[in-house]
Amino acid sequence: MTYDDASNVLNTAIAKANQLNVAVTIAVVDTGGHLLSLARLDSVYGVVDFAIKKAKTAMMFGLDSDIMGNIMNSAEMNSYGMLNSNGGLLTVAGGVVIKDKQGKIIGAIGSSGGTPEQDKEIAATGAKVFSLI
């Protein structure tokens, strides 16, 4: 995914956040979990790290962050080591994998600052854009 692609994903997610009237931070990462693009909307504090970690979690496991959280909870795993690796991960809603038209994972997006449902909707809207390009 190029920077321009990541910016397109980010801007689409920002538009969704504005439509929902929710101030969030949105992060887009590449397949290595490295930050490509970030936006912190007005009046949002303390969630930059959360948005990045949600995106990294989705990318590292190839699953949306909340789905990974459900797997960990249902398996009654001791996930302390996993969640604290790589600078920390978050298994709550808001991290969504980005796939190309062929279904290949090419990155992930994380949103934080709204409710779990809002964060997931914002991130999912951004993630869907790339499959349409």
From TrEMBL:
Organism of origin: Acinetobacter rudis CIP 110305
PANTHER family for this protein: PROTEIN GLCG, SLR1406 PROTEIN
Name of the protein this chain belongs to: Heme-binding protein
Pfam families with a match to the protein in the record: HbpS-like (PF03928)
